[in-house]
Amino acid sequence: EQPPPERWMDRLVAHASHWVDTPLGRQLVAQEDRHLLDQCGVNDVRGKTLFFLSRVLLGVGFPILAWMMTTDHSVSRVLMIIFFGFGAGYMLPKWIMLRVAKERRRKAAEELPLLIDLLRLLQGIGMSMDQSLHIIESELSAALPILGKEIRLANRQYANGRTRKQSLRRLATVFDNDDLHAITRLIVQVDQYGGMVQQPLQQFSDQIREQRKFDMKEQVGKLTVKMTSVMVVTLLPALLIITGGSGFLDRKSTR
Q1: Distance separating alpha carbons of residues 114 and 151, to the nearest angstrom
Q2: Mind listing the pLDDT tens digit for each residue in 141-192?
Q3: Do residues 34 and 72 touch, judged by C-beta distance below 8 A?
Q4: CB burial readout 201-231, b (16+ within 10 A) else e
Q5: Is 194 left (phi over 0), alpha (psi -120 to 50) or beta?
Q6: Cβ(66)–Cβ(81) under 8 Å?
Q7: Is-contact 29 52, C-beta < 8 A?
Q8: Residue 63: how many other CB atoms lie within 10 Å
């Protein structure tokens, strides 16, 4: 009986994981790539190992596959196959991760106003910041699939002895979002010095929503410009034919 594919994958990851921290591994999974894996939520041993393996296998496999498919085995063609095949195989995992990271950053930005409203609501009924974050993690994480996971990780680090600032550092920096960085800084200040947080949270919420309205208006303006160019290219020729075609045909018939 053959083991399931998951077990083969686990064995492969276990055998290849020690290569990630070698000089070759640090070259194939650079610091920029690890930050990208962080944004995708897979910057653990398994995620880094799979990224490393995908670059190695695709970087070697693409040139071999292209060489097998071509009939011209001249030196120049082989060198071109090796160059472009390795480049495509090496960059393909990163291109995929860039798309995934972009989508998670967008979702995190969309979840931020809801997170602020939930914090403001929980603070308004008398809960502490620790209790509020715990409630969001345990009972409201379904409404915040991206930020809820990050809060769960931050709470786990805080329970293991890290300070609130240290546990929230990842949440503040991983998505490259200034508003998220500001809200985590506010949480740290409230945790350290106490005080009322409802009014600052309300201001944050209003500011983010106004910025979102402004971004939507900007996107609508860009879409209008694009649609104008499309209408000029597609409708203008048809309009000229309809308005001037009859006159052209009449002049041609009189001749």
Answers
A1: 14
A2: 888 889 988 888 888 888 888 888 888 888 888 888 888 888 888 888 877 7
A3: no
A4: beebbeebeeeeeeeeeeeeeeeeeeeeeee
A5: left
A6: yes
A7: yes
A8: 21
